[in-house]
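hey m, so remember when u said the tokens were messed up on ur end? i reran from scratch. heres the input so u can diff it against urs
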Amino acid sequence: MGANSSREGLDPLDSDSDCDSESRGTSNNGYDSEGSFATPSSQTSGQKQKGSTTPSSLEEVESRLKALKLKYGVNSGNPTPKNAAKLYLYSGAYSAKSKWVVSEKLTFYEFVKRGCDDDQDEEDEVGSDSHWFLKIGSKVKAKIDDNLQLRANKNEKRVDFVSNGVWAMKFFSEEDWVFFINTYQDFLFQNTFGYESNDENKLKVYGKDFLGWAKPEAADDSIWEDAMDSLGTPPTKTPMNEGNDFTEEFEEVAPKGGAIQSIAMGALDNSFLVSNSGIQVVRNYSHGVQGKGLYVHFDNAKFSGGKGVSSSYSTPKKALLMKAETNMLLMSPANDEKPHSKGLHQLDIETGRVVSQWIFEKDGVDVSMRDITNDSKGAQMDPSGSTFLGLDDNRLCRWDMRDRKGLVQNIVNERTPVLNWTEGHQFSRGTNFQCFATAGDGSIVVGSLDGRIRLYSTSTMRQAKTAFPGLGSPITHVDVTYDGKWVLGTTDTYVILICTIFTDKKGNVTTGFAGRMGNRLSAPRLLKLTPLDSHMAGTCKFRNAQFSWVTENGKQERHLVATVGKFSVIWNLDRVKDGNHECYQTQVGLKSCYCYKIVLKDDSIVDSRFMHEKFAISDSPEAPLVVATPLKVSSFSVSAKRLQL
């Protein structure tokens, strides 16, 4: 399947005439379809309708009016209280007839804690007493967190969100909209961090150097503009969508019996599809990847486990190219419950045989690793490379396949060779590292379970030069541009883009990898799906957001891609950086970019990666995008017309 243009703006809400049958009748709040107070009818169809002027009806009206005044503070001069709104539901299941319909012409919302309201649902999660919920009439009750995917639009006095469907609330005044947004953000902070939303607690969560993250409107955005000027990449000013800019060039079917798990993208002649039964070799072309007919099967005889090394390769989790892409390190977890491994296998791609089984060991004691990566962005192309980086929950280190004297170890004998821990640090506790990546010079970015993103220089792994605070969601994947000026962090519900550039005390422009940024930084930008696309993606999470691939100074990444279920989502990096584009003009809080394009597949996507920039043809702005599902891998070329998002 090809690429679908996303909804870069908010779909217009339909007119009142499109309201559904429920909104035409009396609402649960006692208001008729025109918003005037009406007497609910309690008669059956066989009963004669009583007049609305009977004493009992007047008494009921008076009682309800008093109740509303007590609950919402209604007075004769303010007929629509602050917590009144018009509620819409997106109907039509994304067909040609899909549209917004009015669910309730006048409804009321409130923020409640579990146990604070009388009609709490039994299925509410246990132990959620400290969590705030958003309740809208009888239609919506949802915990306030990032899963709501709430998108605010100040110009339209509107918020869109996901809760068993896609909803929109339209407020009657800007004051009402501001009141809702401020209250919602306060309770979101409290649900996320467990503290009441105030300046003291925000200082506790973010630290004094990062208060711009808590109050983005007060942050200095000029750093983003200065960064763009220094890179010589002015923001694009053309329309966001110019049709379908992707063309599917090749499609490869996974070998029989093997489901693709990941892509090991090569920068030279070949790339590799890692499945649960072996490795398929594909050829790199200027329009994508195509099969060579070569397949290396995982054989238990070849992959016999050494000391501490798992012999099972049914689910390889990491494949790392080395030595000019002639060798591959394969790491699988010791068990299915945890991603950690005690060792790895080294595969000679040219012969298709395992040449060694390595174990991780420090000071004579076996240690585990949860991830490995190359020393730098282009290290896999170095024919003499023998070192790589390792990461565990509380460890960051460099491993060497040579012995302590720098000699190549004899890996022909039956002994399982031990990797040499050349440098690194074993932290006492609390880091909870999850993922890492390297820049072109070998600087390291590390993402953590608590949402923190740490930057380490090339000189030491003991202490981070800069540590960005978390926004409340674990970081599951990180990437960094070749020059180290931009960092991506993936969470389940959004991607965070951070600018690492700052001016030090001597007036030099540098990055947070080289020095402590202090308070000389700006707020990050968030990359999100619209509520409509988020609902289409279902419960699927963001995975593996990464930049397009360059390995040369002076070259700049142009796009970034992330995977969500059956979607590969592509953003234009220049557009995300540009603080003046349409997405940011109607928002409050951290700037969130909804301008993207989607490659939609029939099956869940396991990996999406741009090929190396050298495979971009002369009339194309970007190298091909390779998208893998368990059974197929597709290549998409970008048209000569620059990809506008």
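this time it looks ok to me. The CA atoms of residues 323 and 385 lie 5 Å apart. if urs says something different then somethings off w ur setup not the seq
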